[in-house]
Every structure is written in C-alpha cells, then in structure tokens.
Amino acid sequence: MRRKLQVDDATVLQPHDHVMWQGEGDGDLYALAGGALAAGARRGEKLMFVAQDPDPARLSEIPALDRLLGSGQLELVDIDAVYGESGGESGDFDEQRQLATFEGVLADALRDGYTGIRVVADNTRLASGDEEGFRRWLRWEQVTDRFQCASGVTGICYFDRAALSEERMADLASVHPVRSANSAEPVFSFVVDGDAVSVTGTLDMWSADQLQRILDATPDDRPLVVDLSQTEFVDHHALFALKGVASESRPVRIRRARPIIQELASLLEIPSPHLSIE
C-alpha cells in the first residue's frame, strides 16, 4: 500500500512519494531542496532541482555539493528548460510529452547506476495560470502520480502559498499522497495506489465541486478504477459525478464499495453501461 501521510522533515521522503510541500518564498524552497536532495544523494539517486534561475550557492548545506554538481548526479534546471517557456501554462502543454521526458531521465539514471531519481521542483508558477491552465496542471499531477507510484521516483512539488488561492491549494493537496505538515488536511484524497485510484476522506455535497474539478482533470486514456474502501462517507453527489465522467472510451469501475454505498447506487440507478460497481 502506498504511503499517505504528512511530514515535517524532507529527509524522510522515499521513492514513490509524490509530495506537495507548502512554503513561503524562496527561503523555504531552498531549505526544502537542501534536505531532500542531501537525503537523495545518500540513497544513490539522480537528483534534479527545478526552479527559476536556480542558485547553487543557496544549496551549500548539501554535503559534497561541488562533487555532486561536477559528476552530474545533481542537476540544477531552470523551469523553462523542463516545461518550456510557457511554464506549462499554454494550450501547447502536453502531459504525455512531459511524461516521456521524465521517463527518459529515469531510464538514463538507472542505466548510469543510480537507484532512481529525485526531483524537487518549484511548481508555483505552473499552478497559478488561468482556470484552463490549472485544469491542465491538475491533469499532469495525476499523470505523474501514476508514474511515480510505479517507478523509483521521489517527486517533490513546492508551492508558495502566497501565490495560490486556498481552493487551488486544496485541489493540489487532494492529488498528492504525501504533504508537508503545515498544509491543511484535504477533505478527500484522490491518488494512485496500484492499478486503482484510492479515495480517502469524505465525498459529500460540500466537497462535490472539488471532486468534479478533480474528475474533469482525470486522464481519460484508460479505464478509471476508483477504490472506495478507505472513504469515511460517500453520498449521491459523488456517485452521480462518477457516472457523469464515465464513457465508452473511459469506463469507470467502483471497487470495494461498502454495502451501503452499493445499496444507494442501486436505489438511484447509478450503474450504467459505462459505470460498474465491483
């Protein structure tokens, strides 16, 4: 089972952790990067720090920093070099192309003898565009969550809370299984675990709009398997939302729903040709 928790120490992060880290400004970003990258170096991982004009002098707390930089184990990369000059904000952003980039980085790292890759990235600007741009970013977060769940990757997403609304912070928290201790506990989480999306928390009328936003950004290139075994409460709003995104090209399968949820779904005639309850 995948780790789902809050942490206050970046050195404890492990492969498969997809992390949302909240902070205030560059000071918190570089403090996070110093601890997380030093821990990755001890694990023998390939390291990447993605930020706007990354400054190596502010990472001086990392042991043997010059050696890591000189050998190429640690790369400092500008945001534009990873996501393009649009920073992921334009309609040209392609999550599959971006996924292929990171898959290539991982393959090269494993070939070169590293145990995996660890990426610390300031994603604040990427999540602060217009509504359509943010929807695309939420979709990317779900694409990379599946990649990180199945691969030797530790992905640490930093967001400056001063630049993003509470609503966007809540949406981002819901699609990251690991979060910094100073972030609010999301009403529900929607993260990949094995071959399904594991949902925890509460799905009710108060979280219905947020769930709809997450579902609207969910990749539609494969069936959506939703595991409800860890939810505390599910009402008809969530069931109708899942039915609404089910289609012939992207069927939805609800897995491990409690009997009361199955009874509610049957009463409301939720199951359809494209949505099933297992």
Folded structure, characterized:
- The chain is 37% helix and 25% strand.
- By secondary structure, it is of the alpha/beta class.
- The protein folds into two domains: 5-185, 3-Layer(aba) Sandwich (Rossmann fold), CATH 3.40.50; 191-277, 2-Layer Sandwich (Transcription Regulator spoIIAA).
- α4 packs parallel to α5 (131-150) and α7 packs parallel to α8 (236-245).
- It starts with a strand and ends with a strand.
List the helices and strands and how they pair.
Elements (H helix, E strand, L loop, with lengths): L4 E3 L10 E6 L1 H18 L3 E6 L13 H7 L2 E5 H5 L11 H17 L5 E6 L8 H20 L2 E8 L5 H9 L3 E3 L7 E6 L2 E8 L4 H9 L7 E11 L1 H10 L6 E4 L3 H9 L7 E3 L1
Parallel strand pairs: 1-7, 2-6, 2-7, 3-4, 3-5, 5-6, 9-10, 10-11, 11-12
Antiparallel strand pairs: 8-9
Helix pairs in contact: 4-5, 7-8
In the CATH hierarchy, the architecture of the largest domain is: 3-Layer(aba) Sandwich
Supply Rg. Answer: 19 Å
How many independent structural domains? 2
Largest sheet: 7 strands, parallel
Number of helices: 9
Give me the strand/helix succession.
Answer: EEHEHEHHEHEHEEEHEHEHE
Unreliable spans are: none
Roughly what is the average pLDDT, rounded to an integer? 94
Task: Say how many strands there are.
Answer: 12
**In CATH's first tier, which class of the largest domain applies?**
Alpha Beta
Look up the CATH topology of the largest domain: Rossmann fold
